[in-house]
Amino acid sequence: MSIPFYRVDVGGDEREKIDEVFDGEAPNIVEDLEAAFESYVGASYALATSHGTAALHLAMLAIDLKRGDKVICSINAYPSIPEVVRHFDAEPIFIDINPDTFTIDLDKLEAYLAENKSKKLKAVIVSHVAGQCVDLDRLYEIAKQYDVKIVEDASDALGATYNGQKIGSTGADITCFDFSPHLRHNVCNGGMLVCDDEEIMERAKSLRNHAMVIEDEGLGYIYDVVDIGSQYMMSPLDAATILVQLEKQDDNIERQRQIAEIYNERLADAPHIRLPIANEEHPYSLYIIKVDKNRDSFARELAARGIECGLHYIPLHLLSYYKSKYSLRVNDFPIALRNYQQVLSIPNYAALSDDEVEEICDAILDVASTRV
After folding, report:
1. Rounded to whole angstroms, how far apart are CA atoms 61 and 75?
2. For this chain's UniProt record, which GO biological process terms are given (predicted)?
3. Would you say residue 23 has pLDDT above 60?
4. CB 365: neighbour CB atoms within 10 A?
5. Cβ neighbours of residue 61 under 8 Å, at least 6 residues apart?
6. DSSP reduced 3-state for 285
7. Are 177 and 246 in contact (CB under 8 A)?
8. What are the pLDDT digits (tens) for 109-118?
């Protein structure tokens, strides 16, 4: 039996909500999702977008990123992070990572800010890899001290918490979510931008639809364009599906934690394997192990046994565009490089049965036992 890296669990509730959209019974479904999301994460404002990258791009528009500006991000991030920066002809600045959490190293971040004070430095984008957060209290203090905005990439952190507060309500200037993140593809696309700043939200809301302003509400077709925006409106069908899935998210996280407990117990003594170093609030949106050598051959052997794995992420300085654009060398980010050579994400999602989890464990133990 083959076990995919991710499988979407869609039931009758999603289909019923989609039928409501088709039947014209949910004309405000996108607004309903935004209101539900505000309530769920505890944010003042939420803005639905066509996909996660759209939310990130709108965040850069909302902070008025311009050519020549600089934005700091982790070298261990999905390409969408520096990509949205480059589309403004702005410059991403890469920082190495913490070897245990795979997130941006705050010591290195603070050291860079102390040595590179510039009005062109606009923001720091922080990715919560696997849903585990950096020390946000310290991050926000650093941001305040050096006067930079914090944009949190919460693609893996929907429903995750920090000191009991859901990500999106902890103090970032903007937080961006992706409902179909890398290798965990949903049946729908969508993103969400949340913040507590009304001015930022109003600007993002305008720019989401070509910065178009309707001048005659009665007619509805007389409009003006007041800025340069884009078309990032969420589909009502996507909104219907996501609205139902949002109601299940806390239960999904609980199931992910149950599966992680099984992995932690079954794989504790597996040779050549290092398990995640996690805090108590880790949602295990991803369960990332480290294989001490020959990670890819390990993954191939799992694939031969029907177990599909993932990788989070290929460090940005190893990708052709960024390597060439910024003359980056392989050893410029040694922690991320070493991490990349070892990490492997194994399946962990609510739709996995206990039997499937045991099968994954059996396969990993079998492969690990043959390594030398």
Report:
1. 22
2. polysaccharide biosynthetic process
3. yes
4. 15
5. 203, 204, 207, 229
6. coil
7. no
8. 999 999 998 8
Confidence of residue 216 (pLDDT cuts 50, 70, 90): confident
Distance, in Å, from the CA atom of 157 to the CA atom of 218, rounded to the nearest integer, reads 42
In degrees to the nearest 10, what's the CA dihedral of 168, 174, 177, 182?
-130
Give the pairing type, strands 174-178 and 191-195: antiparallel
DSSP assignment of 232-259, as one string?
Answer: -PPPHHHHHHHHHHHHHHHHHHHHHHHH
- Region of 91 please: left (phi>0), alpha (psi -120 to 50) or beta: beta
User: Which contacts qualify for 204-211: CB closer than 8 Å, 24 or more apart?
Assistant: 204/47, 204/58, 204/59, 204/61, 204/62, 205/47, 207/58, 207/61, 207/62, 208/47, 208/49, 208/54, 208/58, 208/232, 208/233, 209/233
Mean pLDDT estimate for the chain: 96
| Domain annotation for the chain: domains and CATH numbers | 12-242 (3.40.640.10), 250-369 (3.90.1150.10)
What is the β-pairing status of strands 174-178 and 149-153? Answer: parallel
The band of 215, judged by pLDDT with boundaries at 50, 70 and 90, is confident
The predicted-structure confidence for 114-168, as pLDDT tens digits, reads as follows 999 888 999 999 999 999 999 999 999 999 999 999 999 999 999 999 999 999 9
The model's confidence at residue 372, banded by pLDDT at 50, 70 and 90, is: low
Indicate if the alpha-carbon torsion angle 317, 323, 327, 330 is positive or negative: positive
What separation in angstroms does the CA of 187 have from each of 5, 10, 79, 234, 237?
Answer: 15, 8, 22, 14, 11
Cβ atoms of 123 and 200 closer than 8 Å? no
d(CA 36, CA 40): 6
Q: Edge to edge, what strands does the sheet with 287-291 contain?
A: 273-274, 287-291, 343-346
**Residue 250 CB partners (closer than 8 Å, separation 6+):** 159
Location of structure tokens 């969420």: 234
Closest CA to 156 of 92, 95, 77: 77
pTM across the whole model: 0.96
Structure tokens, 149: 């905005």
Choose among 235, 280, 234: nearest CA to 132: 280
